[in-house]
Amino acid sequence: MLTKYEIFLKVVEKGSFTLAAQELGYSQSAVSQTVHGLEEELQTVLIHRGRDGLCLSADGKAYLPYFQSIGKAEKNLAEKRTQMLGLVDETIRIGTVTSVSRNLLPILLQKFHALYPQTHFSLRQGDYDEIHAWIKEGSVDFGFLNPVNFDDLRIEVIYRDSMVAVLSKQNPLAKKKIVTLKDMAEEEFILLDEGKNSVPMKAFADAGLKPHIEYTIYDDYSILAMVRQNMGVSILYRLVVAGFSQGLVLRPIREPIERTIAVAYADSRDMTLASRTFLKFAMQETPKVVKKLGIDQ
Known about the structure:
Elements: H1 4-14, H2 17-24, H3 28-42, E1 47-50, E2 53-56, H4 58-85, E3 90-96, H5 98-115, E4 119-125, H6 128-137, E5 142-145, E6 154-168, H7 181-185, E7 188-192, H8 199-206, E8 212-217, H9 220-228, E9 234-237, H10 238-241, E10 248-251, E11 258-265, H11 273-293
Parallel strand pairs: 3-4, 3-5, 7-8
Antiparallel strand pairs: 1-2, 5-11, 6-9, 6-10, 6-11
Helix pairs in contact: 1-2, 1-3, 1-4, 2-3, 5-11
């Protein structure tokens, strides 16, 4: 629906209520009433009506630049609203751990981009504490993390991932069908660096064990390469090793170790429409993706 300012400007452009009404698809009386209503609102005469046509009054000439500015602003606002509803040229900023960005996110991004091809993504990889800090400072819209100890954020759990022992084929533990935390603690251990909230280290501590940590590595896939070279053993998430276990031996651990992955954010009202839309989409689609990857929820 056109605004009163757009209608007024069209009357001025055409110099006629009738011609303006024809172009706008309105009745001549509706256009005339709109202009009259604007005049009443401003308590002045904006247009002189005479036999020779229409002409702006002195006040009409004074108000005209302001009406033009309002008309332009309303047009820009309408265009922006259209962009927002269509998620055009919007950037979604996400904080994520490596395992999610390597396996889960590519599938989600591909599906979402098919629906909204003019959206853009900015991904920042870090550990849980870094992602938490990014969310709090507003440099990302939301993040994928283990929600332990992050009570100051809004949390939406999307899946749970168990951990497995990752061994080289040469390691004696590869002959076992199931291994224990004690078995793993006695080997040269390659620890996945998760920051202060390390899930494997908590499991060792709860069992009263202290592993022999030879290496602490941030990148999951560097750990896989090192284990293949028989440089040690590790405990990693099923999502990490899904599709990358060639040349390795994976064994269940007798003492179950599980990680919760959630979408965390400060306040959804502060997000862009694009980010809110993707967040809802991720919540709906993640169970399907996780099932496809063969990871137990």
